[in-house]
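Re: beginner question about structure tokens

> Can someone show what the tokenized structure looks like for a real chain? I only ever see the sequence side.

Sure, here's an example I had lying around. Input first:
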Amino acid sequence: MSKDPLKRNRRWLWPNRRWPFGQGHLWPRGHLRRFSQRLDLLFQEEGKWWWDLFLFPLTVISWIYAIVIRIRQMLYRRGLFKTRQLPCKVISVGNVTLGGTGKTPLVIALARELRKRGITVGILSRGYKGMKEKIGGVVSDGKRILLTPAEAGDEPFMLARQLSDIPVFVGKKRYAMGTYAHKRFGMDCLILDDGFQHLGIKRDADIVLIDARRRFGNGRLFPRGPLREPLRCLRRASLLVLTALTPRQPPSITAGTNQPFSLRRPRKSLLLSRRFAASGSSPSRG
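And the corresponding structure tokens:
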């Protein structure tokens, strides 16, 4: 048995690497890669007319999804859905596309930098597919790891293992867990992992990651495209971070489908606020 609980949990979730669509077929390593490449092909470019006709049912679902997103955002703007303020500063790290964009390494780097500046920080993740996702839990108290990967989810467990001196929390109800985290640990700042779409908590900074290779694909919403929100939602972002850049690739976030969007500067600087200055940090030197 493996000593690594993260690997052991993955074997428990997927025993013997069996192919999910048939019996008796082992999962070759190349299959997952080829499936990912085909999914990228579906999301990246516009196809011919017959391809668009074939995928028209997905297009209709994406239209319905867009209507749901618009109604949800309108309810938050009009105050029918409450956006609540935590008693500490909140930094959100997220994206607008499906798939990984490098959020976890950025969360780790950001938490370490804030810690280095003398700021007490914690990390709050949803804990997707973990046993504690619905009820919430403390993955790490900054001294020891309290939950297993099956309870916390793989990514929160990895964060807790990488950041042994920083508390990590999981829970679908982010505001309740954030309030509990501040009450117990009295932190100055809370990092929301994958929190860009979570509008129920006010943020002092919204950091959005964009994969420089895939960018926004075909510019369509899920399931016809890779977008979790329309591109105009990037106006909420305080900072855009391009990931997976190659040395010869110029930085660009053009949508690829000629869909214009504009960005606005953040209203205030997070590291120049009084609370951070009082905690012993020196932003002017950083």
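Each token stands for a local structural state, so reading them left to right follows the chain. The chain has a mean pLDDT of 79.
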